[in-house]
Write a structure and sequence with these properties.
2 domains, signal, mainly beta, 228 residues, 2 helices, 40% strand
Length: 228
């Protein structure tokens, strides 16, 4: 799944179904189907790929009238008709890919989970990471504006234990050292910051910031441009 931004020369990959491919290759097509009654009571949703099948979720009523929708927020959901539902249209959300309950992927992996800027942990936006520290997060949180051209006009402030949403499912650039990663961002006027993994020596150049994820490993570093 890709996030397309006018600021970036190419779309950001923010999700790939590793559970279904098991590093055997890229999935080019998948089929969503209902397995019908299981044990005379439950109905399963399964996703079939050339590599394997996986159960997405289970409901306790007939799920044959369902559809899969990619929402404007970047989340993937299954909607299933239930004739006893209280809603006007009778459809209920029976599966959400990015959810604390699904077990598939955290909401923190959604590019715009925290709006224009924010630090996400345990599916929640927990801080606004600004040059003077971690402030309380709100929808007003946004990166400080800086001139991204000319090294004398900006500096980088450091965030430890963070990932950009593109870091999890892409291999990054490199291996390279941290200084070379910095130079790639400094030499690109559109770059807003860079992310570096000291364990793998991989580099990610960010043209958008949006949602950053707090991780437990302090070797995952983020450097954000700010005006001098």
């Amino acid at each position: 799944m890709y996030y397309k931004s006018p600021s970036s020369p190419r779309p950001y990959l923010y999700y790939t179904p590793d559970k279904l491919s098991e590093s055997k290759g890229r999935i080019h097509n998948a089929t969503l189907y209902s397995r019908g009654e299981v044990d005379g009571f439950y109905y399963d949703f399964a996703l079939s790929t050339p590599f394997q099948d996986a159960i997405l979720t289970t409901v306790n009523y007939n799920n044959t009238l369902s559809f899969l929708r990619l929402g404007i927020d970047g989340n993937l959901r299954i909607h299933t008709f239930y004739d006893k539902a209280n809603s006007n249209d009778g459809f209920q959300v029976t599966f959400t890919l990015f959810s604390r309950d699904s077990g598939w992927e955290s909401e923190c992996q959604l590019p715009e989970r925290c709006g224009r800027f924010g630090l996400c942990e345990d599916n929640q936006c927990v801080a606004c990471p600004l040059p003077n520290g971690l402030m309380g997060w709100s929808r007003d949180c946004q990166p400080v504006k800086s001139s991204s051209c000319g090294s004398k006009k900006f500096y980088y402030y450091k965030l430890e234990g963070v990932d950009h949403y593109m870091s999890k499912h892409t291999s990054g650039i490199g291996p390279m050292n941290e200084d070379d990663c910095r130079r790639k961002c400094s030499g690109d006027c559109k770059c807003l910051g860079y992310f570096y993994n000291k364990d793998t020596s991989k580099c990610w150049i960010a043209y958008d910031l949006h949602t950053l994820t707090r991780v437990g490993n302090s070797t995952h570093l983020g450097y954000i441009k700010a005006p001098k």
